[in-house]
Amino acid sequence: MSAGPATVVVSGAHVATVDAAGTEYPDGYVVVRGNRIVDVGAGPAPVIDGARVVDGRGCLLTPGLVNTHHHLYQWITRGLAADDTLFGWLTTLYPIWAGIDADAVRTAATGGLAWLAKHGCTTTTDHHYVVPRDGGDVFGAEIEAAQTVGLRFHPSRGSMDLGHSQGGLPPDSVVERLEDVLKGTQDVIDRWHDPAPDSMLRIAVAPCSPFSVTGDLLTEAAALARSAGVRLHTHLAETLDEHDFCHERFGCTPVQYMEQLGWVGPDVWYAHAVHLDDVAIAAMAGTGTGAAHCPTSNARLGAGIARAKDLHVAGVPLGLGVDGAASNEACNMLEEARHAVLFARARGGPGEMTVRTALELATRGGARVLGREDELGSLEPGKLADLALWRVDTLAHSGITDPVAALVLGVTPPLELLLVNGRAVVERGRVITVNEENVAAEVEQAHRALVRKAG
Ligand SMILES: [Zn+2]
After folding, report:
1. Which pLDDT tens digit goes with each residue over 60-103?
2. Centroid of ligand 1 to alpha carbon of 323 (angstroms)
3. Cα 292 to ligand 1 centroid, rounded to whole Å
4. Which residues contact 332 (CB under 8 A, 6 or more apart)?
5. All domains in the chain, ordered by first residue
6. What EC number(s) does the entry state (predicted)?
7. I want to staple 141 with a disulfide (CB 3.0 to 4.6 A). Which of 7, 23, 102, 205 is the partner?
8. What is the Å distance from ligand 1's center to 58 Cα?
9. Closest to 280 (Cα-Cα) out of 311, 302, 249
């Protein structure tokens, strides 16, 4: 074989393919050509003239991690309201978030995306729902950041139209009018959505939550998304407060409310899905409605522990999400995998979740939630070249015989290499697409300016 341009061979690694059969090669290789995986197997790697050969000895090779819920703009508002509940935390943060603009969002998103990459994430969603009238092109700003850092990006155009004066939670100053939301959402789809099979950028439609948007907006947003062929996302069943809000206002559970509005189906995924009864889980499974399980954020805000095993066993498409940086200062997808295992077992006993199920949720599960299981989430010939090479032979992990256990239960290993669409984004623990120190300094400055602006 001779090499075309940009052929990369990773050899001598423990390869966890995370395919449907759970195939692993303790001494295996992967060959990438351009933006696709072309070969995966056991034993010595094929010799290809001109290829870059990466020595994977002492490393675990996995699919890149897929993050199914985030709010990147919050990267410059981390650590605030550190000991509050969701509703109290939101009430503290809304006035600060009201001051964001395109520059602030670009800085926040660059920091947040670089951090995700540094911890093995290759595809991420974002849920951006604060769109100040005079804030400029906040959506364009985060897309620019994703292109700079080099991650595969599924941003969702969020919105709020149920202000405090109408019985909602957010202050009136951060809500939009329904017609402005619909126009803004359509504009974003027309401008940015790329449905191509190897797309680096897909848009979703994402009104914020039942307690911050009207039923009219949810209904209209679903119609818009379906006519444009894009996915639907929202927060749902995160806290008991939300459960009570839905009961008092609509006389039903959050999932029943969403069913009434047409917000179920294989093109819909909910963030959190913590407080679900058996009827809700059956409804999600029966309609193919997905969930982004965010164990760290749910614990940080004391929201509860989602029934991850029950969702998974029922067949609900299930991925993991870091959630916004203001409710998860770590924003590390491997921590989500670890917390998914630990919290599931703490909640339901030792048989609740295996380490390999957690890795599956962080990769192929997330790809399924985003409707991209045929392209992403496992190391198989023909799939897109999104992969993470973790060093598991340092002091942190040496002596742990099972590298998947080392990855999920240990501290996050150093990342030897991260390829996104065949392109190196992280090398030997450093993000190479941006200057990490400069980004850190810009984040610090943007954080101070924003807090100062809120007075
Ligand atoms: Zn969220």
Report:
1. 999 999 999 999 999 999 999 888 888 888 888 988 999 999 99
2. 5
3. 10
4. 115, 119, 322, 412
5. 7-63+384-431 (2.30.40.10), 65-369 (3.20.20.140)
6. 3.5.4.32
7. 102
8. 36
9. 311
